[in-house]
Amino acid sequence: PKAVLLRDYTPPAFLIDSVDLDVDVREKQATIRSRLAVRRNPAAKDAAQPLVLDGRHLELVSVAIDGRALAPGEYTVDEDHLRIAEAPAAFTLEAVVRFDPWANTRLEGFYASKDGLFTQCEAQGFRCITYFIDRPDVMSRYTVTLHAGRERFPHLLANGNQVAKGEEDGERHWAKWEDPFPKPSYLFAMVAAKLDLLEEGFVTRSGRKALLQVYVEPGKIDQAGFAMHALKKAMRWDEAVFGLELDLERFMIVAVGDFNMGAMENKGLNIFNTKYILARPDTATDYDYYGIDKVVAHEYFHNWTGNRVTCRDWFQLTLKEGLTVFRDQEYSADEYSRAVARIQDVRDLRAYQFPEDAGPMAHPVRPDSYVEINNFYTATVYEKGAEVIRMIYTLLGREPFRKGMDLYFERHDGQAVTCDDFTQAMQDASGVDLSGLRRWYSRAGTPRVTARGVYDEAAQAFTLTVGQSLGQGGEPLHIPLAVGLVGPDGVDIPLRLEGDAAASGTTRVLDLREAEQQFRFVEVTARPVPSLLRGFSAPVVLDGGLTDADLTHLMTHDSDPFNRWEAGQVLATRIILAGVEALKAGKPMEVPTAYVEAVGRILASASRDPAFAAECLALPDEAILAEQMEVADPDAIHEARRRLKREIAERYRTRFEGAFRHFTVTGPYSPDANAAGRRSLRNASLGYLMAIDDSTARALTFLEYRRAENMTDTMAALECLANSAGAERERALGMFYEKWKDEALVVDKWFRAQATSDLPKTLDRVKSLLAHPAFDLRNPNRARAVLHAFAGTAVHFHAADGEGYRFVAEQVVALDRINPQIASRLARAFDRWKKYDAGRQAHARGALESIRSAEGLSSDVGEVVGRALG
Ligand code: DPP
Ligand code: ZN
């Protein structure tokens, strides 16, 4: 398959104004009759182009233009297209196609799950439902009529409003839906299923009445309440913060257990992975609740940022995803703790996006080319894309940013546009020059920022020299660098740059626009410690040139909570990486007293903000540490990190035991920030105690496992036990499975806890899990809980004997025959293979080559493996 290039974009030759679908569901077959109002695009380059429709996995029954059936010579059909050489200027195209949704294991297009039939069309699934010009700049009005058996498919749903319904012969029924808004085909959705329904009314800020519905698997209505609650909160938030209201009479969410993504923002009919809908205190953790809240909000927010204004082409994916992630991040920050939300977002960015940007799949947030667009639903497009929006927000300020959003909607409502259209609206509304900021859209890689401060006591001046590099030449980026100066007493010094009339504020956003720049602060009465990149104001790797003593000072005093956390992370990273070198040289690992004492201060003041304290107690992830080494050594990283944790645990054992008792949450379960924060600190304490892993710690953890009444505490204990070789491990795992074997999302947790265990025999365990009766390679959540989870482990996937690589390679090939999108994600585990030693590299190369030589490899996996080897 050939790469598609951004620079080759041309407008479509034809437009499709309306789509009328008639969908007939029978045993093992769906028949789709389409009526398309087609006309030549006045903006097309060439007025004589043939009509080329996309279509895959379809059996074409008939095709007609303006009511006249086409003869075989008048069109051609291949695996991907239907071509009609001679097409009039405007006409009605009718086609009839058939396929079997029950045989569709790819889960794109129209497919079967346990309770019925569902769709997934983004990015290019609509072409698996009918022949179409399947690209987002073709926007149409849709009418859909569904026919199916009443007993098996009581709910027949599609986008928009239900306008008619009725009965048919043979215990069948039908329903007709009309979506008043023109939309691209990727936002099409329909459902024919047996589901339970939770519904509530909603009155929008301007007084419009709407019906909100959440459809779930029969019997699970008691797990739908939080999603409904989250939806209403998100709707209110978007009204208050962005002035955006629901534009439909009815907003539906349908949860399905077999789903490739997290969720999908189809117009008026969101379809969700059950993972992001179903929750009950005893089945879902605080983190699950947080995820549901965020994803429900995210998909709802797409109704404006994505649906009302959509993407011109798939290179612009970050236009809707980066912006909508930014919106869901701000929503979460408002609903929970802003500092903790930011820390978690940055931790994920570093664990997933930074490695992506340093590996074979590196691409700009607006990619220049792709082979398979499904491979570009990435951390870069989403999370780095959100960071780019955040930088615009930081540069403009809240009010001008809001004006920019208003202008964006005013100009582009109902259109399919580009990232440039967005930044232009932001620039025009604010008057802020965004030329340097725009470069972020076209550059891959993580920029490095170096900062060095010099204090001149005589002049009472502090000069900061800041440089940036991305190592590819080109003009420098515009990087907003938020800084503060922390005095020796721990108090922020008011900031006055040379040339300012007076000091103002204690945090200042410096505009770094050159390769190197100097900033001179005056009236600095004592040598400060610079607090750089406050709030992580840009997605860069910072070398701040600070000493351990400076960092300990910031860790204790910085008024910016993000940088207080960050100082602790940098210190812990230094200690662990020095420990790696010591271990390799056969020397003891050193843990500086100053660091341990700073950790003690976190514990001592934990009650001020337990959730934040828990974040500060979490040591950097092994994947993040591996990125900082020239040649990653996963075993040494694991061992050094383990030793640091154990040393802290032994030093503060009594305090951790105290915190574990003290932060108990009483009363009925609630996933709110306060209660969840207390549980988070309590379970972090348990994690430290289990780093000691003696019989006392194991007994405490097992007792906790049996006592726990909510899934947060249950899983915290179970995960500790799963990493421990004590007899409690198998007892707890056995009890857990017995209790939860009928609750799929909870069984996923059971699989995942075993697949990610630190214990030596984890790969053997994973292999035996594949033979477990509850394992099913066709279910994406289950595959992810075992295979993707295992492939994400630092130690076992990267085992020096290459067994981890060989195993995952075999599973990529097996999965590819079922579901290329899920297989391709698994293959991404190999991204960083060149960061390891020669022995591991040889094994990884062998594994990658074995995938590449597999017969019938999908273009999804082919692109990932080809880039890794290339
Ligand atoms: N459903 C995915 C998301 O919301 C793709 N649009 O991000
Ligand atoms: Zn999205």
UniProtKB/TrEMBL annotation:
Organism of provenance: Usitatibacter rugosus
CDD domains, sorted: M1_APN
Protein name: Aminopeptidase N
Hydrolase among keywords: yes
UniProt KW keywords: Aminopeptidase, Hydrolase, Metal-binding, Metalloprotease, Protease, Zinc
Enzyme kind, highest EC tier: hydrolase
Pfam families: DUF3458 (PF11940), DUF3458_C (PF17432), Peptidase_M1 (PF01433), Peptidase_M1_N (PF17900)
Enzyme nomenclature, EC number: 3.4.11.2
Domain Aminopeptidase N-like N-terminal, residue spans: 20-187
Cofactors demanded by this protein: Zn(2+)
Catalytic activity: Release of an N-terminal amino acid, Xaa-|-Yaa- from a peptide, amide or arylamide. Xaa is preferably Ala, but may be most amino acids including Pro (slow action). When a terminal hydrophobic residue is followed by a prolyl residue, the two may be released as an intact Xaa-Pro dipeptide
Domain of life: Bacteria
Family: Belongs to the peptidase M1 family.
Alphabetized SUPFAM superfamilies for the sequence: Leukotriene A4 hydrolase N-terminal domain, Metalloproteases ('zincins'), catalytic domain
Function: Aminopeptidase N is involved in the degradation of intracellular peptides generated by protein breakdown during normal growth as well as in response to nutrient starvation.
Gene: pepN_1
Ranges where the Peptidase M1 membrane alanine aminopeptidase domain occurs: 226-437
Limits of the Peptidase M1 alanyl aminopeptidase Ig-like fold domain: 445-543
GO molecular function, one term: alanyl aminopeptidase activity
